[in-house]
Design a protein that fits this description.
Elements lengths: L8 H8 L8 H4 L52 E3 L4 H4 L5 H9 L6 E3 L10 H10 L4 E3 L4 E3 L13 H10 L5 E9 L10 E8 L15 E11 L7 E7 L8 E6 L4 E4 L31 E14 L3 H4 L5 H4 L12 E13 L9 E7 L5 E7 L5 E12 L4 E11 L4 E7 L19 H9 L1
Antiparallel strand pairs: 1-2, 3-4, 5-6, 5-17, 6-7, 7-8, 8-9, 9-10, 11-12, 12-13, 13-14, 14-15, 15-16, 16-17
């Protein structure tokens, strides 16, 4: 793939600094100036195909009611062009290796409609303020397995290595607490599927208002996931405490088994163990594009690049669309997708010697405006591109968070895919729920399981 990496002085500085170096005051002073409050380049690109960031979406569109599906603020946009197998050569330099492979694998049906770039990502002001404070104090510890001296905001808004970029994704703002009701499906090659329905519940401990590092108890996120359909899987519940330093203290996880009516520890909910009810189509650490301990990989910061990525995917989120409209054979219905040209951080992760994972290499494409991972290319033990992951995201403008509405993991070798996050026919995300750490204890899990 022809390279078009950006070469501003910022990237040059970043690539030359050692793992433990910290950002000085003069660099941090750029936040909110030529850099956005989260560290992206505020200006557009020289070609004018990426506009300047103007704050993103900070207020909901007129008529929006909290709790309903989110109207598309860019509904009047029309595609600038559509990338197909036939014109792939004209655009391949701006594509991920995974998207180029999908266009080649499905030449008659896979297409990528490319729309005007809308830099819609935004966060509350307190996240920006905390990010500025973190910029000069945060540092990696335990060879990058954790970090310290940062709280609430992005820890490394001016990243100096690949691990810092990944930690920015892991700690990005997604509200304080959230509940969601989503579907997961892994259609056969012919398109038939069984919908697995989840009730997910989050407390983002790291971004709670007025939280201190001492309050964290080494926990970034409290998470609960209940399977509510189909009947043969319903009733099982997972609780996880996502620890900040998972090498010092591995993720704490418990599962309620409906058949046995008992709670047990679940140490295997990590790394490349199979994802819940995913038919072997994703690993545990592919949930949310990447989660968990980063210690099994060496993380190389390749640099920043202009790449066509999924963005502002309000059509895939719409309640006027049915699951059947999205879940078509071989890949999702690409007519409902939206792609845009954005600057992304490219991080290449290669498996460390002496460790194991089904993916020998993973290339991550991380949005500069939100620190959300937008796409991942995953390679097998032979170095062959195996699975392609996409996060189709929107700005949940009532909470000012840019987060996925649908994740798609496509297996090039099996000719199948997994879609998780489907919410078109169900309830919407609820960012107004009130949660405390006590809601995610093993005792709370027992009480939830026996109801």
């Amino acid at each position: 793939m022809k390279s078009r990496f950006l070469t501003p002085s910022l990237v040059t500085i970043i690539l030359c600094l050692p793992l433990s170096a910290q950002v000085g005051e003069s660099e941090a002073a750029r936040l909110g100036q030529d850099l956005t409050p989260l560290g992206a380049e505020r200006a557009g690109n020289a070609a004018g195909t990426i506009p300047a960031w103007d704050g993103g979406i900070t207020t909901p569109p007129a008529g929006y009611v909290v709790g309903s599906h989110h109207p598309d603020p860019f509904a009047d946009d029309r595609p600038l062009y559509t990338i197909t197998h036939d014109n792939l050569g004209e655009h391949e330099a701006s594509l991920t290796a995974g998207h180029a492979a999908l266009l080649k694998a499905y030449p008659s049906s896979y297409r990528m409609p490319v729309y005007p770039t809308r830099r819609s990502a935004s966060n509350p002001e307190r996240i920006y303020e905390a990010t500025r404070r973190n910029a000069t104090t945060a540092r990696l510890v335990n060879n990058g397995a954790g970090f310290e001296n940062a709280i609430v905001g992005i820890p490394f808004p001016i990243p100096q290595n690949g691990l810092e970029v990944i930690w920015n994704h892991l700690t990005r703002y997604r509200g304080v607490a959230a509940a969601r009701y989503i579907g997961q499906a892994s259609p056969t090659r012919g398109g038939s599927f069984t919908m697995v329905e989840f009730e997910d519940d989050f407390l983002f401990n790291y971004t709670r208002e007025d939280v201190t590092a001492a309050d964290l108890d080494n926990v970034l996120i409290y998470f609960k996931q209940a399977v509510i359909a189909p009947a043969r899987l319903a009733g099982s519940i997972l609780i996880a405490h996502e620890t900040l330093d998972q090498v010092r203290e591995p993720r704490r996880a418990w599962v309620y088994n409906a058949g046995q009516r008992r709670v047990r520890r679940a140490p295997n909910v990590a790394y490349d163990n199979p994802g819940t009810a995913a038919d072997g189509m994703r690993t545990s650490d592919q949930f949310d594009m990447f989660n968990g301990a980063p210690d099994r990989y060496d993380w190389n910061l390749v640099g920043k690049k202009e790449i066509i990525v999924p963005y502002n995917s309000y059509r895939l989120h719409s309640d006027s669309v049915k699951y059947r409209d999205i879940l078509t054979p071989l890949h999702i219905n690409q007519d409902l997708t939206r792609y845009e040209l954005h600057r992304v951080w490219v991080v290449d992760a290669t498996l460390k010697s002496g460790t194991s994972h089904i993916y020998s290499r993973r290339t991550f494409y991380v949005d500069e405006d939100s620190w959300q991972i937008l796409a991942v290319d995953q390679y097998d033990s032979r170095g062959q591109l195996w699975r392609v992951s996409e996060a189709h995201c929107i700005n949940y403008y009532e909470a000012q968070t840019f987060w996925s509405t649908l994740e798609v993991h496509t297996d090039l070798l099996a000719g199948r895919y997994l879609a998780i996050g489907l919410d078109n026919e169900g309830k919407m995300y609820d960012f107004g729920v009130k949660r405390t750490p006590a809601d995610y204890s093993p005792d709370a899990l027992r009480r939830a399981g026996v109801r």
